[in-house]
Amino acid sequence: MKAPFAAPITPPEQAGVALAEQGQAVLDPAGFAALVGAPLTAFDAMRSSWDELAPDTYLRDGGHYRRRRHSCFVVRGGEVEPVPHRPHWQPIEYNALHGGLERWFEPITAGVVAREAWQKMLLAMGRLASSLRGDQPWYVEAHQFRIDTTDGIGRPTPEGAHRDGVDLVAVLLVGREGIKGGETRVFDADGPTGVRFTLQEPWSCLLLDDARVIHESTPIQPLEAYGHRDTLVLTLRAGGFQSFNA
């Protein structure tokens, strides 16, 4: 099997600089823990919640390979404020496949969002977003994903290479089991420059300035009968959540 491309690692103290200069940064697990200020064991304690995700019933490609949960928060003044459960919505210009739909998913469980490490993670991402755009409230959407090989292959980004219509995106690899593929690709939105790599270690973290880059992950295939890839995706947006009524 061809060895996957290794991710270019950024020291956590340089994450803001890398985002400002390159539009993207990758933290290894130790770097992610340092950025957040919480031990990796605290995040490992959340991993079993990925076994409790409900099927995504909105897939327009007819697939059955995605499970997810979704919750929203506001990071404001050094505090994390949960908001009433709401749908995930994107305009068509950012998601040609699923844009324009109000998609209601089961919320992330209270046992996860109440953890100190979860709170510290959202606060750290808020600080990072403020370093890019200035200090202000950040409207955060959190998505737990499991992509599996029930259909033979699983598509982490069925919409293809895309932007999310936010300010900052964080993609955390939670785990890979029994799969090949799932290569991450990041390209300048206005030019030919790009990088490709495969996140392998749990709690590796890809950070993206969504205004400057587009991104995608290639399909996964099973090494034997079945496999899956778990991720946590956080998006931070200034001014409010994306909404059909906005």
Q: Which geometry do the CA atoms define?
A: globular
CATH architecture: Sandwich
Biggest sheet, open or closed, and with what strands and sense? Answer: 8 strands, antiparallel
Low-confidence stretches: none
What percent of residues adopt helix (DSSP H or I)? Answer: 10-25%
Q: How many individual domains?
A: 1
Rg on CA atoms, Å = 17 Å
Description:
This protein is an alpha+beta fold and 246 residues long. It has one domain: Sandwich (Jelly Rolls). Helix content is 17%, strand content 31%. Strands 1, 2, 3, 4, 5, 6, 10 and 13 form an eight-stranded antiparallel β-sheet that branches. Strands 9-8-11 form a three-stranded antiparallel β-sheet, with no helix packed on it. A two-stranded antiparallel sheet has the order 7-12. The chain starts with 14 loop residues before the first helix and ends in a 9-residue tail after the last strand. The mean pLDDT is 92.
Summed up:
By secondary structure, the protein is of the alpha+beta class. It has helices at residues 15-22, 29-36, 40-44, 110-113, 116-133, and strands at residues 24-27, 54-55, 66-76, 79-82, 138-148, 168-177, 179-181, 184-188, 194-197, 205-209, 213-217, 220-222, 228-237.
